[in-house]
Structures are given as C-alpha cells and as structure tokens.
Amino acid sequence: MYSPSNQGKSGTWALTLLRVTLGVVFAVHGWAKLTDVNGTAQSFASLGLPLPTLMVYLAVAGELLGGVGLILGLVARVAALGPVCTMAVAIATVHWGHGLLAKNGGMEYPLILLVASAFFAINGAGALSLDAWFANPRRRQQRLFRRQASRLVRRPA
What was the pLDDT predicted at 137? Predict the structure, then answer.
C-alpha cells in the first residue's frame, strides 16, 4: 500500500492535490451530464449503449458522487470505483478504436483518469481526508473528551 510518510508533508500534499483535482474533474463532468440528461442520452444512444437514459444516470452517479467522494476523501475507495467504471466504459465504447493519442480521439486522457482513480480505489484517500479523520481513534477520543469536559463545565454546581 502506498504511504506518503516517507516523503513527508510534500507527499501528503501532492496526494491530496491529485485526489481533489481528480474529484473536481469528475464532479464537473457528472454535473454537466445531469444538467443535460436528454442530450447525453442521445449521445449515448448514438454510441449504441443500451438503455441510454439509465446509462446517463449511472454515469452521473459514478462521476458526480464519485467526484464529490474524492474531493472530500470520504469513502474514497468506494467513490473511486465510479470513475473507474465510467472511464472503462468510455474507453471501450468511444476511444479504443482511435488508438492512444488524444489528438486522434484516442484513450490517452480517459486512461490517465482511470489509472488515477484506480490508485485511490486501491490505496484510499490519504492522510488529508475525511476517511483518515474518521479512522483516527486518537481524534475520536479527543472529541469525546472535549464533549464530556464541556458537559462538566456547563453543569450548575
């Protein structure tokens, strides 16, 4: 499993920047599909995808919800699976026949997005994430202590 600890703070910040940027890209694409469901469904139908309207909503779920999950680092391993799936479908249905290079309509860009998403699906969100915050038992104990201490302070004597 990847750990930026051997790279210090710079590794943690770089991983966070990558995750958040990836999440923003997917969230924006998902939002664009959601705001034009009919147009996107027509586009999907022209590609020969079955049940194009359903496929639009699946793509929106994968991109918008997956993107937000990546931005926040919340259930990031699960969230990253949405972008992995949408990019796999995009590569298989649109880009595969055009080769690698993006200038020819190839799979270069969606492949990078797929691999980056797979990284987070396998390794998680990293240290600067809600996943890490919720998983840290010391922080939970500190929150509990503060909550109990504030109750003690508020009690009338």
Answer: 73
Q: How far apart are CA 157 and CA 153, in angstroms?
A: 9
Q: How far is CA 103 from CA 14, 68, 75, 91, 111, in A?
A: 28, 29, 35, 15, 14
**Of the given ranges (2-6, 49-53, 113-117), which has the lowest mean pLDDT?**
2-6
Please tell me the total count of domains within the chain: 1
Instruction: Check: CB of residue 21 under 8 Å from CB of residue 116.
Output: no
Under 8 Å between Cβ of 108 and 100: yes
**How far apart are alpha carbons 30 and 25 in whole angstroms?**
9
Question: How much is the average pLDDT of 106-111?
Answer: 95
Residue 82, number of CB atoms within 10 A of its CB: 26
Q: Fill in the DSSP letter of residue 125.
A: S
Is residue 49 in a domain?
yes
Q: What pLDDT was estimated at residue 80?
A: 98
105 in a domain, yes or no? Answer: yes
